[in-house]
Amino acid sequence: MKTILIISMLIMAQNILAEDLMVYTSRKEHLVKDIFKQYQKETGVKVNYRTGKAGALIQTIKGEGAKSNADIFMTVDAGNLWYASTQGILEPTRSAILEKNIPSHLRDLDNQWFGLSVRARTIAYNPKKVKEGELISYEDLATAKWKGRLCLRTSKKVYNQSLVAMLIDQHGYTRTLEIIKGWVNNNVEIFSNDTAVLKAVAKGQCAVGIVNTYYYGRLVKKDPKLPLKLFWPNQESYGVHINVSGAGIVKTSKNKEAAKKFLEWLASKNAQRSFAQVNMEYPIMENLPQNNVVKKWGEFKANTKFNLSRAGILQKDAVKLMYEAKYK
Amino acid sequence: MPTEDQSSWQFIFQSVVPDLFQNTLKLFIFTILNTFLLGTTSAFFISFTDIPLKKYFQYLLLTGLSIPLYVFAFIYVGMFEFSGPFMSFFRETLGINLHQYINIKDSYWVSLVISFGLFPYVYIFTKNAFDNVGEQMIFASRSLGYSPMKTFLKLILPYSKPWIFSSLILVCMETLADFGAVSVFNYDTFTTAIYTSWMALFSLSSAARLSLFLVVMALLLFFIDSKFNKKGTHHQRSAKKLKSPLFKLTTTQKVLALFIVGGITFFSFFLPITQLAFWFLEGFKEEWGEHYYSLIFSTFKIGLIASLAIVILAFLMSYLKNYLPNKFNNRVNLLSLLGYALPGSIIAVAVFLYFRFFGDHLPIFQTGTLAVLILGLLIRFLSVGFRSLDNHIGAINPNLEKASKSLGHGFLGTLKRIFLPLSSKAALIGIVLVFIEVIKEMPMTLMLRPQMENTLAIKIFELTSEGEWERASISSVFLVCLGLISVYVVNKLSVEKN
Fold it and tell me: Domain B288-498 is of which CATH architecture?
């Protein structure tokens, strides 16, 4: 009797363990920990995670092969997600909920990955240094009136590679090269992160910079008096460049059903509220109430024509183009 | 190689590589010059003059080692770029736009910041060499009519040259392998290009080829060191330290000396640590939590296991090399030390792929276990342990070994009777030096660590890559504290050694 009890308990324990999920993620621990805990609280399923750089994690999953205990791969930027999908580590997932909640331009053409939060890469400016109506578009920053007034993050950051990939998709290689050369010729100053770009704009080293919205949110939250504002470019044309953080189910996962449920939960109204909020991002679905800070930045037209998989496909070209334009 | 990879490689080779050589060369030249000046000057004042507060300075000059190079970089960039507090102060209060003169992202300034982080290696090697000259030789020189200056230039410097040279090679290796610091400056070197090829061009084969450049350069450095840098003839004497300093400084000279050495410690320690302290106060409330205990524990655990493993292996290698010096041994030694010039992420990938294969047969070496991480760290830092031991073991008088052999003691007997007792202190120093390096290591630990196990260095990486300097400073401060304790131990041990 005793043995049976122990064995049945062990089996039960096994079942509970099998329910656990393992997420390999390049998102930083402090941005995902709480949301994973929330899932555990609501469903009882524990979400373990392993953090690292996107490229290294993809190699790890590839390397571990069938032995991998990764169920979900989660990262930021469509370029990284696209790369994961080309490495054969993600499983196409059919889910009515995911397809309904996530607009098609924010997920993989083959449903290998799904965007889970949206960030806009837009223009931040110093109101003391920029006249009303002066700002128009990404392309316009290449004109001579911005000489000595432009700050950018390094071209090595994937966010800029995706932005330039979008421009190549829009204008073709030659025209985009002209635009980027125009940026560089405006004596652009280069920084290693978005926060540094914002600080430079606030201090008047330059008048404008291109940054992700949440970096602006974090900095202004710390110091609300900074002379910094957001501008939504290209409203008359294709709209602001947006990107996602997202995830996909790993091909070798032994827990695909549970993994799918977790992704569906992440794309649900309830989870979206906190998932986007924790990093001051935008929820994946339209018409979901936004967090107050983000709401204050105003409504904008986003580029919804550009399927984010293209950002990955064109990334190589973007890197070469920026090198050619001497954008460091 | 698939054709797409081929085109990526062509692009990298033709357009990127020439710039990389130029950048790396510039960085090398400036860093060698800077660390040489900083290291030998400070060693000179500590070893041969009666500079006030010497007791404190000889420790303070080492403290920079406790600050990881990438932390150094983000502190200095944060302070000295246009929007930083230093430049803002000059601009807004004094009306001087210093930015036109100091562009912190230019190669010279990049090198200077890196040099403040790395010069302690040159300092410690040089100081040991200086102290090893011993009073007998200096007395002899003085009684033959050489002035103190002449003694220093004609006797002490030539005698110490091999060690200074070795430390400069070490500095080059560190510079070659650095990724974290140069990427904060957005300064392109081979390591940043490796990362771009892999992550932006998706070409692992191009990344591998670029790593080969690093390996070749590291081999070249080793070759130069072993071919042109003969230190075999010096053997440890019972070198007594000088009782009275070689140079007695006048009051003016003392002030000048204080200004120089104080300036060096200011930039290599006090300034960065002050910035960290400010951030610490700002970020503590938001960031501190109980999970920091486990971060500190993991950091300590991994550091300790790795440094013990490394020093044991380094000891055996050095002993074999000196006991059975033959060509084969030397080559094996050379190869095994290469890891130091390779970026951690590259070694991590190699180790990982290798053990994916072995993991099937040896469960302890399954990827994601502590054993694999330790092995990776071993490849990366063996050189540090080996150098600190080999300098010492190589200097053990061979007559002792011959005597032991002639008394009938074999390999093990000689090991036990001569080498172990004579190098136990050097081994301890080696352990602590390796420990300092291991706890600062980031890219490899990030990739190979066991699941859910985090270290302070990883926390720093996670927060700084989001631009959260204040919150990252919590981990930085703990890391620096661990490092400071270690530096203190090293200093204590090496003072006792004399």
Answer: Orthogonal Bundle (1.10)
